[in-house]
Write a structure and sequence with these properties.
With 266 residues, the protein is of the alpha/beta class. It folds into 2 domains: 58-122; 127-264, Rossmann fold, CATH 3.40.50. The chain is 33% helix and 25% strand. The strands form 3 sheets. Strands 7-8-9-10-11-12 form a 6-stranded mixed beta sheet, with no helix packed on it. The chain has a 3-stranded mixed beta sheet with strand order 1-3-2, with helices on one face. A hairpin with a 5-residue loop joins strand 8 and strand 9. The protein starts with 7 loop residues before the first helix and ends with a strand.
C-alpha cells in the first residue's frame, strides 16, 4: 500500500497563520488602548488648564470699617491661587480662614461663578493700654484681643489703670472691673457725637479726663456721661485753637452751657 506523503511545513501552516492573526489583533488592541489613554490625558490637561484659568472677577466687601475693601481683598486673597474660583471654593470649605488683625471673622459668599461677597465681622475694640512696647487693644468686656506696635486710628489710649501682667485673649487684670462699663459708655458717647480724643485718663475713683490735643476735659464720674459729651460737642467749636482745661464734672440739666469755666493755659 502506498503511504501518503506530507510536508512538515504544510502541516504547521494553518497554526502559524492563526498566530499571526492573534498578534495583529493584540497590536491593534494595544494601539486602541494607547489612543484612548492619550485622549484621556489630553482631556484631563485641557480641563486642568480651564480650571486653572478661571479667576474670580468681582469682589464685594461688607462690614469693613478698619480696612478698605481693597485692603480686605488683598489680605484674604494674598496667595497666587486664592483668586482661582475652584481653589477658593475648596479652600473656603476645608481650610481655616486667615487671621487678620482686628477682624473677628469673615464669610465668603458666592453670588455667581466668578463673583463673591465678603462679610467682615470686626472686633469691638474700645481702647488700648501700653504694655512692654506694644499697644494692647481690648474689647468692651476688657478682653485683650490684639497686641501690635501699630496705632489704630480712632481708638483712644486708656491710662490710669492698675494691672499686672497682660495675656492675649484674657481679661485685663485691673482692680475694678466696673471701669470697662465706664469706658464702653464713654467711648460709645464719643463715637455717637463724632468726637475724637487721643487719651482717656482715669483716677483711682474712676473719674475720667479726656485729652484732645491741647485741650483737657475733666468729665468726672460716669453719671450723666451721655449729656456731658453732648454738651462737649456744643462747646468744642468755641475752643478751637485754644489750650487749657474744661471742667464738665458738675454737669446738670438746668445749667447754662456758658457757665462752664474753661481755664486757659496760654
Amino acid at each position: 500500500m502506498k503511504k501518503d506523503e506530507f510536508n512538515n511545513d504544510d502541516f504547521y501552516e494553518d497554526d502559524h497563520d492563526d498566530d499571526y492573526e492573534e498578534d495583529d489583533g493584540y497590536e491593534s488592541e494595544k494601539k486602541v488602548k494607547r489612543m484612548l489613554l492619550g485622549g484621556v490625558v489630553v482631556i484631563i490637561l485641557l480641563v486642568a488648564v480651564i480650571l486653572a484659568s478661571v479667576r474670580i472677577k468681582s469682589f464685594k466687601v461688607i462690614g469693613n470699617n478698619r480696612y478698605t475693601s481693597e485692603e480686605m481683598v488683598s489680605e484674604i486673597f494674598s496667595d497666587r491661587w486664592d483668586t482661582n474660583a475652584f481653589y477658593c471654593f475648596w479652600k473656603d470649605k476645608t481650610k481655616p480662614h486667615k487671621q487678620i488683625p482686628f477682624v473677628q471673622r469673615y464669610d465668603i459668599n458666592w453670588e455667581g461663578p466668578l463673583s463673591v461677597s465678603i462679610t467682615v465681622y470686626e472686633k469691638n475694640i474700645v481702647g488700648y493700654v501700653d504694655y512692654m512696647s506694644s499697644h494692647m487693644y481690648f474689647d468692651k468686656d476688657g478682653i485683650v484681643v490684639e497686641s501690635t506696635g501699630d496705632k489704630l486710628e480712632g481708638i483712644p489710649k486708656i491710662t490710669g489703670l492698675s494691672f499686672g501682667s497682660i495675656i492675649l485673649y484674657k481679661e485685663l487684670p485691673v482692680r475694678n472691673m466696673n471701669v470697662f462699663n465706664d469706658i464702653l459708655n464713654l467711648t460709645g458717647s464719643l463715637s455717637d457725637n463724632e468726637i475724637k480724643c487721643d487719651e482717656i485718663a482715669y483716677d483711682e475713683l474712676l473719674n475720667a479726663t479726656l485729652k484732645m490735643g491741647d485741650i483737657q476735659v475733666y468729665l468726672g464720674s460716669n453719671k450723666d456721661m451721655e449729656m456731658k459729651i453732648y454738651t462737649l460737642k456744643d462747646i468744642l467749636p468755641k475752643l478751637e485753637g485754644m489750650k487749657g482745661t474744661l471742667n464738665l464734672s458738675d454737669y446738670n440739666e438746668s445749667s447754662d452751657h456758658e457757665s462752664y469755666i474753661f481755664r486757659s493755659s496760654d
